[in-house]
Structures are given as structure tokens and as C-alpha cells.
Specification:
Helix Hairpins; alpha+beta; 8% strand; 6 helices; six-stranded antiparallel beta sheet; elongated
């Protein structure tokens, strides 16, 4: 029997390498395994978090207004101190003038009021009396100056305190505004999460379009349009009403129950800047959620946005605020 040479025998894998290969395979399998996703939060949980954030935001706003009131009080105190300084300055200037006149009269050999110096032949008691009067006037002047100095020092303290208080309040207001902005961002995130829990009812085709739906209910709109309308009502205030179904056959989606107008003004009037901003916000929200909610196109400010193109284009002038959709965003669904 022939004995196989070492070159003919298959090479054996050392045990250490076999163990390493097995361990590496396990590691690769674990790495390839999908991580377990966190459970999706419920609408109830998200709304509870939203309520807590709104409560915190209300507290921040209350503190902000309290700080504004305190700052106004500090400004009034500072103004009162400046008024007090002006009055004291007037007294000081008047008394300083009198003091300078007294010093000049004494230097020139006279007394205030054109009183001549007494000669040595005159009664010394009269001279002493007049000198005492001069000293009395000086004492009165000194007392007045000391009084002014006290007023001036009090004012300086009040001014410094008011400035310090105003600086502290300014920092507090800035901090509160930052906290308020953070709270608002968190609220927006939670609202977005709530929106993501909703998907348009019906069947979506592979090309991204949706199978049409029949209108239903007393408002004669489709379930898909009703969901969009409901979500916009929950997120935005629409004070001038929402118009959806119209029987007039104008070739659009209104007679089919697949469109709604979210009015920003009444009677064809041009909306205010705030209302136009609200319209922009509604349009931006619709664009953000278009694919998930089955929104087909949006018209606002004489422009149209279509989900197929994902961009705005200008429309021709139809001759009026309402016809050009300046007073309302129009939203159509598939």
C-alpha cells in the first residue's frame, strides 16, 4: 500500500484558527442582526409629553412677563433718582453762587449785602455779632452742602442699584427667551411625531399616486381629505373658516370632495402679514407631510406646488385676491 506523502495530504487547520474563525462568524452574525427598535410611542403618550412641555412653556412666559414688570419698576426708580439729582443740583448751584458771593465780599473787605467793615473805634460787641452772623451763614451753607452731598450719594446708590437690577433682569429675560425657544422647538418635534402616526387611508400605487376615494358624510369630502383637514385644524388656528365641497363643476377637486380652502381673511380682503405667515406655515406643513397623507398639490399666493415635481411654480393672474389664492391656501388630495 502506498503511503501518501505530506504534500498529498490535505492541510489541517489548527484548532486555534478554527476557534477564531467560529468566534469571528458569531461576531459577524451579531453585527448583521438588526437592532431591536424602541417601541413606537402612542398618541396618548406623545400628547401627555406635549401637555407637560406646554405647561413648562407657560411657566417660562409668566416668569418672562414678571421680569418685564420688575424691570419697568427699576427703570421708574432710576428715573426718580435722576429727577432727585436734578433738583439737588439746582439747590447746589444756587447755594454755591451765594457762597462764592460771600467769600468774595469777605475777601474784598465787606460783608454780604454791602455791609462795611467796622473800624477799631466801633463797639467790639457789634463786630463780634457781625462775625457771628457771618459764621452762621457759613454754617448754614455747609449744612446745605452736606444735605446735597447726602442726596447726591443716595442718588448714586440708587442709580447703581437700578443699573445692576436692569442688567440682571436683561440677563434673566434673555435666558427665559432661550428656554422658551427650546420649549417651542420641543413642542414642534412632538407635533411632528404625532403627525407621523397618521397615514392617509386608502390604497397607494407603486408610482406614489393613490387610488381615488368616494366622498362620504354630511360634509361630502373623502376620508383622505378629512384627515388632512382634521390635522390642520388641530395644529393651526383657521379663524375665517374652511371651505371644502362645492357643487359647482369648475373642473377641480372641490366637487369631488378632494380639496379644501383654509381662509386667512374675509370678503376677499388681503390678509394681514401675520395671516399670510400662517398661510405659509400651513403650506409648509402640507408639503412636509404630502407623500404620507396623499396630498397631490397646494396653491397659495398665485403659486402651485405639486408632489410630483416637489417645487413651486407661478400661476397666471386670475384677477383677484381670492382667485389668485392670496387669502387662502388650497390643498388637494388624491
Amino acid at each position: 500500500m502506498a503511503v501518501a506523502s505530506s504534500a498529498d495530504r490535505p492541510a489541517r487547520t489548527p484548532r486555534t484558527w478554527r476557534g477564531t474563525s467560529a468566534a469571528l462568524a458569531v461576531v459577524l452574525l451579531l453585527a448583521a442582526a438588526p437592532a431591536q427598535a424602541d417601541p413606537k410611542p402612542t398618541v396618548k403618550q406623545l400628547k401627555k409629553e406635549l401637555a407637560a412641555l406646554q405647561k413648562d412653556s407657560d411657566k417660562l412666559i409668566t416668569e418672562y412677563y414678571n421680569s418685564r414688570i420688575a424691570r419697568e419698576k427699576a427703570e421708574k426708580a432710576e428715573k426718580a433718582a435722576r429727577d432727585k439729582l436734578a433738583a439737588a443740583q439746582e439747590v447746589y448751584d444756587r447755594q454755591s453762587t451765594e457762597l462764592r458771593a460771600m467769600a468774595l465780599a469777605k475777601y474784598m473787605g465787606g460783608e454780604p449785602g454791602q455791609i462795611a467793615l467796622l473800624s477799631s473805634s466801633q463797639d467790639p460787641s457789634a463786630l463780634l455779632g457781625r462775625m457771628a452772623l457771618t459764621q452762621h451763614l457759613i454754617d448754614v451753607q455747609d449744612a446745605r452742602l452736606r444735605g446735597y452731598a447726602a442726596v447726591r450719594n443716595t442718588h448714586r446708590q440708587a442709580k447703581d442699584e437700578a443699573a445692576a437690577r436692569a442688567g440682571e433682569l436683561e440677563e434673566t429675560v434673555e435666558d427665559l427667551e432661550e428656554r422658551k425657544a427650546k420649549a417651542e422647538k420641543q413642542i414642534e418635534r412632538i407635533k411632528d411625531k404625532i403627525d407621523q402616526l397618521y397615514t392617509a387611508p386608502g390604497v397607494r400605487r407603486p408610482d406614489g399616486t393613490w387610488v381615488p376615494q368616494l366622498p362620504e358624510g354630511s360634509d361630502h369630502i373623502t376620508p383622505r381629505m378629512r384627515l388632512v383637514k382634521q390635522l390642520i385644524q388641530e395644529r393651526f388656528e383657521v379663524p375665517y373658516g374652511i371651505g371644502c365641497y362645492r357643487a359647482i363643476q369648475d373642473g377641480g377637486e372641490h366637487p369631488l370632495g378632494r380639496a379644501c380652502d383654509f381662509m386667512l381673511s374675509r370678503g376677499g380682503a388681503m390678509p394681514s402679514a401675520d395671516e399670510l405667515k400662517r398661510g405659509d406655515q400651513i403650506a409648509a406643513w402640507a408639503i412636509k407631510n404630502a407623500k404620507r397623507l396623499g396630498i397631490m398639490y397646494i396653491i397659495f399666493r398665485q403659486r402651485i406646488w405639486h408632489v410630483r415635481t416637489g417645487s413651486w411654480r407661478t400661476m397666471s393672474d386670475r384677477g383677484g385676491t381670492t382667485a389668485n389664492h392670496y387669502d387662502h391656501p388650497h390643498i388637494s388630495v388624491y
